[in-house]
Amino acid sequence: MFGGEMALRLLLDHLAYAEHDEEAWAQELRVLESRCAFNSLGVTGAFKTVVPGDYEYGVASIYAEFARDRGWLDVDRTLTAEEYASIRHEVNAWATQDRTLTEVREAFGPPSVLFGGNNPLYGKTLAYTTERVTDPMICFHLWNGTDPGTGSSWPPTYNEPILLAVRCGRGPFKDTFTFTPQGSMRRPGTA
């Protein structure tokens, strides 16, 4: 919320230095670049290729995966192995319909980490994770804003954020997304 991607990068630079782990951080940036989750505009640039606008909440979720792997991320709740397996099993079919923030919370409970504020009018990412760092985080990317060509930036189009995509995994960046119908419609280059 305060400083965007640059603030996240500086924080991780400092944590890596303090932990004498600069090489792991440098390696993580190389891995992100090889997955196309990081480009000349950082993670922000990678997100611009798959979701509309400047989606800073998704950006934070990418860096949080590294922080979690290093033991630097405190989560509000961890899923049991059974809860995690259940979400992984049903999420792709579940995301074939348009969903809202309320529906995500009702279906999967409170998130492990909330990226973004509590104001229901703004976009955010809800992440779900277990204690095992080998289990990739499951991230629900929610958006709210105004449609292109409306001429106004307020009020947002929806009463609460809508789900654009669910992201999980550490493969090629674009392949880790499952898009809802609204998410598919709003993808860059599809308008």
Layout of helices and strands, plus pairs?
Elements: H1 4-18, H2 22-34, H3 42-48, H4 56-70, H5 81-94, H6 101-108, E1 113-115, E2 124-128, E3 138-143, E4 162-168, E5 177-179, H7 181-186
Antiparallel strand pairs: 1-2, 2-3, 3-4, 4-5
Helix pairs in contact: 1-2, 1-4
Explain the overall architecture.
It is a single chain. The longest helix has 15 residues, at 4-18. 33% of the residues are buried. The protein is α+β, with helices and mostly antiparallel strands and 191 residues long. It has one domain (4-186). The protein contains 7 helices and 5 strands; from the N terminus they run H-H-H-H-H-H-E-E-E-E-E-H. The model has no long low-confidence stretch (mean pLDDT 89). The protein has helices spanning 4-18, 22-34, 42-48, 56-70, 81-94, 101-108, 181-186, and strands at 113-115, 124-128, 138-143, 162-168, 177-179. The chain is globular.
